[in-house]
Amino acid sequence: MTDQPKPRTISVDFDGVIHAYTRGWHDGTIYDPSVPGAIETLAEMQRTFAVVVHTTRDADTVAGWLCARGLNAIPDHRTDRVFWNERETILVSNRKIASLAYIDDRAIKFTSWDQARADIEDLT
After folding, report:
1. Residue 40, SS3 per DSSP
2. Contact criterion met (CB below 8 Å) for 73 and 89
3. Which InterPro entries is this protein grouped with (predicted)?
């Protein structure tokens, strides 16, 4: 079996991680400024990694919002995309793209099912 290189992509959640998201979904608009440090960190990450922003929002709208803040971003309209390896352009997607890491404010880090079950129980 040939060793495959690790993906060089980092996926980042949009709401609550990049967009402050203080009122929740609200009416679907992107109403808040960026989380402090988000735009600068995304720009820095692009020097080393391909970056995917994942969101349940309209990908075109999110890409436009990122571009308005000086980042080069495009919406993902492909339904068959699995990988993204472009470092100069952020891909905005509604799909989970293969990544080295996922940055998300609502994640439960998985180490075992016992730990996951305990973390889920803590949510109730």
Report:
1. helix
2. yes
3. HAD-like_sf, HAD_sf
Phi, psi of 119 (to 5 degrees): -65, -40
The phi, psi pair for 99, rounded to 5°, reads -145, 155
Instruction: Pick the closest to residue 91 from 12, 18, 35, 25 (CA basis).
Output: 12
Provide the β-strand partners of residue 91: 52, 74
For the chain, give every domain's residue range.
Answer: 9-122
pLDDT (tens digit per residue) in 20-45: 999 999 888 999 999 999 999 999 99
In sequence order, the 6+-apart residues with CB closer than 8 A to the CB of 75 are 59, 60, 62, 63, 92, 93
- What letters, b where the CB count within 10 A reaches 16 and e where it falls short, cover 51-61? bbbbbebebee
Does domain 9-122 fall under CATH 1.25.40? My reply is no
Nearest to 52 by CA among 13, 25, 23: 13
Q: What is the pTM of this model?
A: 0.91
Convert the pLDDT of each residue in 55-67 to its tens digit. Answer: 999 999 999 999 9
